[in-house]
What does this fold into?
Amino acid sequence: MTATTAKEQSIASSIQLRAVTKAFGSVQVLKNIDLDVASGKVVVLIGASGSGKSTVLRIMSGLETADSGEVVVGDVPMHDPKRAPEIRGHVGMVFQQFNLFPHLNALGNVTLALRKSLKMSKAEAREVGLRCLERVGMQDRCANYPSQLSGGQQQRVAIARALAVNPRIMFFDEATSALDPELVGEVTSVMRSLAADGMTMVVVTHEMGFAHRTADRVVFMDDGVIAEQGSPEQVLKDPQHPRTQQFLARVLEA
Amino acid sequence: MNLELIWDNLPQLLKAFLVTLELSAVSIAGSTAIGLVVGALRTSRVPVVSQLARAYVEIFRGSPLPITLLFVYFGAALYLGYSVELFVASAVGLSIYHGAYVAEIFRSGIEAVPTGQREAAQTLGLSPMQTFRYVVLPQTRRIVFPPLIGQYISLIKDTSIAFVIGMVELMKAGQAIVDRTAEPVPVYLTIAALYFVICYPLSLWVRRNERKIVPA
Ligand SMILES: Nc1ncnc2c1ncn2[C@@H]1O[C@H](COP(=O)(O)OP(=O)(O)O)[C@@H](O)[C@H]1O
Ligand SMILES: [Mg+2]
It folds into this structure.
């Protein structure tokens, strides 16, 4: 890879949010969000339920549009309605409820977008799909349907499906929250290996262990604003904001 | 019962029966195409689009089929300035009328697919059309299938109503024989049997599949 393409890539997988607001009806969900994620970094979003974490991820992935402010994801200005659709297929989203396609087996889930959106041949899609399933340790279960897989396995297939289209950025919205405790580790270890490979990631999670070990930065959201952010050491071990202290006390107690 | 009478008129009845089959097949295809499009538009997030689709459904569900048929047949002659073939008018009338019901069946199927499915497809880069075709529609199958076949059965029986515009299908052919022979009972029984022969296997098929399709 030449120096210029490396540079282009590093520009193309960063994220900038400036003064972003979002309301649902009369409820102001995001009040004034500024957030920067540099290329190849892992940012973990924490905060109480309802603080707006999912909404931030959904705006960055194009599932919602901000009411005001600037959102640039990769090289796509998401605040420009004409250009926002360009993001589709370039960022990966992993959902709490997996959202696997129940009528397709694991390989079918992973290859659908390769075939229909990227117009790959069947053989090519299969090869890419199997490689992605291998990456999450699921190649042996490629013929299984979602209903035949455990939650942890389903979520790993969902990660493989997101990876298949070769996204520049991955978003995880409580990817392990719906899992039995003993299945959390197999998913977080896949997420850690992605981080180690240099994927730009924004992760909403209640797994403080993951945040501590993997995050480059931890961002604490409270009632639609970013109340505090910093290194995992700072935010998790020495929180300054009283709301962060309360939140962590509650989470660590549980 | 006068079996000879039926035997003598059987070629005529079977010929009309074929017309009924043909009209049914074309109208099933037409109503499914209309129902699919209108049902999908009905779930649109663009209010004007979903309201127009809704208006379509309400209008045709709220008017009797004979009126729809008469409107299509004579309306085409009066307003378009040319008369359509009886078969075409019958098929169009049946399609738009039953299309309204089929649209509601597809709508309920589409709405039963969780939004997360569409969101996952969108972030993967599938277009809205691809998402509908490859993600949403296959998942509506289980919900849509039994009522859809039920609707097709009603449609098949409703082809008899095409007699109001003079279409010679099974019902109309039977009436002509009754007029000629003054033997309504054997003729109508035969006609009923012929409808039953197509509708009953469809009912059976639904019942078998209902048992086979277990919720995921
Ligand atoms: N589509 C929506 N319509 C109405 N309110 C919503 C919608 N999505 C989220 N909200 C509200 O916005 C607030 C923030 O939600 P969310 O971003 O999901 O928070 P978090 O992920 O931190 O729990 C909540 O009060 C939630 O009820
Ligand atoms: Mg959330």
Notes: The interface with chain B takes residues 61-63, 88-93, 95, 97, 99-103, 112-113, 116-118, 145, 147, 158, 161-162, 165 of chain A (CB under 8 Å). Residues 152 and 182 of chain A are 9 Å apart (CA to CA).
